[in-house]
Amino acid sequence: xxxxxxxxxxxxxxxxxxxxxxxxxxxxxxxxxxxxxxxxxxxxxxxxxxxxxxxxxxxxxxxxxxxxxxxxxxxxxxxxxxxxxxxxxxxxxxxxxxxxxxxxxxxxxxxxxxxxxxxxxxxxxxxxxxxxxxxxxxxxxxxxxxxxxxxxxxxxxxxxxxxxxxxxxxxxxxxxxxxxxxxxxxxxxxxxxxxxxxxxxxxxxxxxxxxxxxxxxxxxxx
Length: 222
Ligand SMILES: *Cc1c(COP(=O)(O)O)cnc(C)c1O
Hints:
- The protein has one domain (about 5-220): Alanine racemase (TIM Barrel, Alpha-Beta Barrel), CATH 3.20.20.
- It contains 9 helices and 8 strands.
- The protein has helices spanning about 5-15, 30-40, 50-55, 75-80, 95-105, 130-140, 165-185, 200-205, 215-220; strands at about 20-25, 45, 65, 85-90, 110-115, 150-155, 190-195, 210-215.
- The chain has an 8-stranded parallel sheet with strand order 7-6-5-4-3-2-1-8.
- It binds pyridoxal-5'-phosphate.
- The site of pyridoxal-5'-phosphate has 12 residues, from β8 and α9.
Protein backbone atom coordinates (compact mmCIF):
# COMPACT_ATOMS: atom_id res chain seq x y z
CA UNK A 1 0.00 0.00 0.00
CA UNK A 2 1.20 3.49 -0.83
CA UNK A 3 1.87 5.91 2.01
CA UNK A 4 -0.10 9.09 2.65
CA UNK A 5 3.08 11.02 1.86
CA UNK A 6 3.55 9.45 -1.56
CA UNK A 7 -0.11 9.85 -2.53
CA UNK A 8 -0.05 13.46 -1.35
CA UNK A 9 3.05 14.09 -3.42
CA UNK A 10 1.40 12.58 -6.51
CA UNK A 11 -1.74 14.71 -6.11
CA UNK A 12 0.14 17.91 -5.28
CA UNK A 13 2.46 17.33 -8.24
CA UNK A 14 -0.51 17.06 -10.60
CA UNK A 15 -1.83 20.54 -9.75
CA UNK A 16 -0.96 23.75 -11.55
CA UNK A 17 0.95 26.28 -9.39
CA UNK A 18 -2.06 28.58 -8.92
CA UNK A 19 -4.35 25.85 -7.52
CA UNK A 20 -4.40 25.25 -3.75
CA UNK A 21 -4.72 21.73 -2.37
CA UNK A 22 -7.23 21.30 0.45
CA UNK A 23 -6.63 17.85 2.00
CA UNK A 24 -9.97 16.43 3.16
CA UNK A 25 -9.15 14.45 6.31
CA UNK A 26 -12.68 13.68 7.56
CA UNK A 27 -13.01 10.26 9.21
CA UNK A 28 -9.23 9.78 9.19
CA UNK A 29 -7.28 9.89 12.47
CA UNK A 30 -4.98 12.72 13.56
CA UNK A 31 -2.07 10.37 12.84
CA UNK A 32 -2.88 10.37 9.10
CA UNK A 33 -3.12 14.17 9.12
CA UNK A 34 0.26 14.30 10.83
CA UNK A 35 1.78 12.21 8.03
CA UNK A 36 0.45 14.62 5.41
CA UNK A 37 1.60 17.58 7.51
CA UNK A 38 5.11 16.14 7.78
CA UNK A 39 5.09 15.78 3.99
CA UNK A 40 4.39 19.52 3.71
CA UNK A 41 0.59 19.82 3.54
CA UNK A 42 -0.87 22.71 5.55
CA UNK A 43 -4.56 23.06 4.56
CA UNK A 44 -6.93 20.39 5.88
CA UNK A 45 -10.72 20.15 5.73
CA UNK A 46 -13.27 18.42 7.93
CA UNK A 47 -17.02 18.03 7.58
CA UNK A 48 -18.22 17.56 11.18
CA UNK A 49 -17.93 20.10 13.98
CA UNK A 50 -17.27 17.54 16.73
CA UNK A 51 -14.48 15.98 14.71
CA UNK A 52 -12.68 19.21 13.80
CA UNK A 53 -12.97 20.55 17.35
CA UNK A 54 -11.37 17.33 18.65
CA UNK A 55 -8.57 17.28 16.07
CA UNK A 56 -7.46 20.94 16.24
CA UNK A 57 -5.68 20.72 19.64
CA UNK A 58 -3.93 17.46 18.66
CA UNK A 59 -2.22 18.98 15.63
CA UNK A 60 0.21 21.79 14.80
CA UNK A 61 -0.95 25.38 15.16
CA UNK A 62 0.03 26.41 11.65
CA UNK A 63 -2.52 24.12 10.02
CA UNK A 64 -5.16 26.10 8.15
CA UNK A 65 -8.47 24.35 8.81
CA UNK A 66 -11.40 24.50 6.43
CA UNK A 67 -14.93 23.38 7.27
CA UNK A 68 -16.77 21.77 4.35
CA UNK A 69 -19.79 19.97 5.86
CA UNK A 70 -23.36 21.03 6.40
CA UNK A 71 -23.19 23.36 9.40
CA UNK A 72 -26.14 23.12 11.76
CA UNK A 73 -27.13 26.47 13.21
CA UNK A 74 -26.76 25.19 16.79
CA UNK A 75 -23.10 24.33 16.12
CA UNK A 76 -22.02 27.68 14.71
CA UNK A 77 -20.65 29.03 17.98
CA UNK A 78 -18.69 25.85 18.71
CA UNK A 79 -17.04 26.10 15.30
CA UNK A 80 -16.40 29.85 15.05
CA UNK A 81 -15.44 29.89 18.74
CA UNK A 82 -12.37 27.74 18.05
CA UNK A 83 -10.99 30.87 16.32
CA UNK A 84 -9.04 28.41 14.23
CA UNK A 85 -11.20 27.96 11.15
CA UNK A 86 -9.48 29.67 8.27
CA UNK A 87 -12.42 29.16 5.91
CA UNK A 88 -15.99 27.91 6.29
CA UNK A 89 -16.63 26.70 2.75
CA UNK A 90 -20.16 25.42 3.19
CA UNK A 91 -22.40 28.41 3.93
CA UNK A 92 -25.69 27.25 2.43
CA UNK A 93 -28.21 29.84 3.62
CA UNK A 94 -28.47 33.55 4.42
CA UNK A 95 -29.63 32.64 7.93
CA UNK A 96 -26.49 30.58 8.56
CA UNK A 97 -24.39 33.47 7.30
CA UNK A 98 -26.09 35.84 9.77
CA UNK A 99 -25.40 33.45 12.65
CA UNK A 100 -21.75 33.08 11.66
CA UNK A 101 -21.46 36.87 11.44
CA UNK A 102 -22.91 37.33 14.92
CA UNK A 103 -20.64 34.65 16.40
CA UNK A 104 -17.56 36.11 14.71
CA UNK A 105 -18.43 39.63 15.89
CA UNK A 106 -18.82 38.34 19.45
CA UNK A 107 -15.42 36.61 19.17
CA UNK A 108 -13.87 39.78 17.81
CA UNK A 109 -12.62 38.02 14.69
CA UNK A 110 -13.29 38.20 10.98
CA UNK A 111 -14.53 34.83 9.72
CA UNK A 112 -13.76 33.98 6.11
CA UNK A 113 -16.46 31.99 4.31
CA UNK A 114 -17.52 30.70 0.91
CA UNK A 115 -21.09 30.48 -0.31
CA UNK A 116 -22.00 26.91 -1.27
CA UNK A 117 -23.77 26.58 -4.60
CA UNK A 118 -26.09 23.77 -5.53
CA UNK A 119 -25.85 22.85 -9.19
CA UNK A 120 -25.56 19.03 -9.14
CA UNK A 121 -28.91 17.38 -9.77
CA UNK A 122 -28.81 14.19 -7.73
CA UNK A 123 -26.30 15.13 -5.06
CA UNK A 124 -26.50 17.09 -1.80
CA UNK A 125 -29.54 19.26 -1.38
CA UNK A 126 -27.51 21.91 0.40
CA UNK A 127 -26.51 25.20 -1.14
CA UNK A 128 -27.97 28.19 -2.95
CA UNK A 129 -28.92 27.84 -6.59
CA UNK A 130 -26.99 30.16 -8.94
CA UNK A 131 -30.06 32.43 -9.16
CA UNK A 132 -30.46 32.57 -5.36
CA UNK A 133 -26.77 33.39 -4.96
CA UNK A 134 -26.93 36.15 -7.55
CA UNK A 135 -30.04 37.57 -5.89
CA UNK A 136 -28.32 37.48 -2.50
CA UNK A 137 -25.43 39.55 -3.82
CA UNK A 138 -27.41 41.97 -5.99
CA UNK A 139 -29.76 42.65 -3.04
CA UNK A 140 -26.76 44.10 -1.22
CA UNK A 141 -27.53 42.05 1.90
CA UNK A 142 -23.87 41.12 2.23
CA UNK A 143 -23.16 44.80 3.09
CA UNK A 144 -24.76 44.26 6.51
CA UNK A 145 -22.12 41.69 7.52
CA UNK A 146 -19.86 43.07 10.22
CA UNK A 147 -17.42 40.25 10.87
CA UNK A 148 -17.59 37.97 7.87
CA UNK A 149 -15.61 38.09 4.64
CA UNK A 150 -17.19 36.23 1.72
CA UNK A 151 -14.17 35.05 -0.27
CA UNK A 152 -15.92 33.21 -3.10
CA UNK A 153 -17.92 30.12 -3.97
CA UNK A 154 -17.80 26.38 -3.27
CA UNK A 155 -19.63 23.72 -5.21
CA UNK A 156 -19.82 20.13 -6.34
CA UNK A 157 -20.55 18.61 -9.73
CA UNK A 158 -23.03 15.82 -10.28
CA UNK A 159 -21.66 12.42 -9.32
CA UNK A 160 -21.79 10.87 -12.79
CA UNK A 161 -19.53 9.39 -15.47
CA UNK A 162 -21.04 11.87 -17.92
CA UNK A 163 -18.03 14.14 -18.43
CA UNK A 164 -20.03 16.75 -20.32
CA UNK A 165 -22.43 17.05 -17.41
CA UNK A 166 -19.58 17.39 -14.88
CA UNK A 167 -17.90 20.04 -17.02
CA UNK A 168 -21.20 21.92 -17.37
CA UNK A 169 -21.75 21.88 -13.58
CA UNK A 170 -18.28 23.30 -12.90
CA UNK A 171 -18.74 25.88 -15.64
CA UNK A 172 -22.06 26.90 -14.07
CA UNK A 173 -20.35 27.53 -10.71
CA UNK A 174 -17.55 29.50 -12.35
CA UNK A 175 -20.02 31.53 -14.41
CA UNK A 176 -22.02 32.37 -11.27
CA UNK A 177 -18.82 33.69 -9.67
CA UNK A 178 -18.16 35.91 -12.69
CA UNK A 179 -21.76 37.18 -12.70
CA UNK A 180 -21.58 38.05 -8.99
CA UNK A 181 -18.28 39.87 -9.45
CA UNK A 182 -19.74 41.82 -12.38
CA UNK A 183 -22.94 42.66 -10.47
CA UNK A 184 -21.01 43.81 -7.38
CA UNK A 185 -18.06 45.91 -8.53
CA UNK A 186 -17.43 47.02 -4.93
CA UNK A 187 -16.91 43.47 -3.64
CA UNK A 188 -13.36 42.81 -2.43
CA UNK A 189 -11.36 39.61 -2.18
CA UNK A 190 -14.06 37.55 -3.85
CA UNK A 191 -11.74 35.30 -5.78
CA UNK A 192 -11.91 31.73 -4.46
CA UNK A 193 -13.57 29.01 -6.51
CA UNK A 194 -13.49 25.79 -4.48
CA UNK A 195 -14.47 22.91 -6.73
CA UNK A 196 -13.14 19.50 -7.60
CA UNK A 197 -12.76 16.28 -5.57
CA UNK A 198 -10.64 13.14 -6.01
CA UNK A 199 -12.52 11.85 -9.04
CA UNK A 200 -13.17 15.10 -10.92
CA UNK A 201 -10.61 17.72 -9.94
CA UNK A 202 -8.95 17.95 -13.35
CA UNK A 203 -12.27 18.95 -14.93
CA UNK A 204 -12.79 21.49 -12.13
CA UNK A 205 -9.38 23.05 -12.77
CA UNK A 206 -10.18 23.34 -16.46
CA UNK A 207 -13.27 25.35 -15.48
CA UNK A 208 -11.23 27.72 -13.28
CA UNK A 209 -11.08 26.14 -9.83
CA UNK A 210 -8.61 27.80 -7.43
CA UNK A 211 -9.00 25.25 -4.58
CA UNK A 212 -9.49 21.50 -4.96
CA UNK A 213 -10.81 19.45 -2.01
CA UNK A 214 -9.23 16.01 -2.12
CA UNK A 215 -9.69 13.22 0.40
CA UNK A 216 -9.69 9.69 -0.98
CA UNK A 217 -6.78 10.18 -3.40
CA UNK A 218 -4.58 11.23 -0.45
CA UNK A 219 -5.84 9.31 2.59
CA UNK A 220 -7.48 6.28 0.94
CA UNK A 221 -11.10 5.24 1.32
CA UNK A 222 -13.10 6.23 4.37
C1 LIG B 1 -15.69 14.43 1.43
C2 LIG B 1 -15.70 15.68 0.62
C3 LIG B 1 -14.69 15.94 -0.33
C4 LIG B 1 -13.57 14.97 -0.67
O1 LIG B 1 -14.05 13.89 -1.44
P1 LIG B 1 -13.05 12.77 -2.03
O2 LIG B 1 -13.87 12.10 -3.06
O3 LIG B 1 -12.70 11.88 -0.90
O4 LIG B 1 -11.87 13.46 -2.61
C5 LIG B 1 -14.73 17.16 -0.99
N1 LIG B 1 -15.70 18.07 -0.74
C6 LIG B 1 -16.68 17.85 0.15
C7 LIG B 1 -17.71 18.90 0.37
C8 LIG B 1 -16.71 16.65 0.86
O5 LIG B 1 -17.70 16.45 1.74
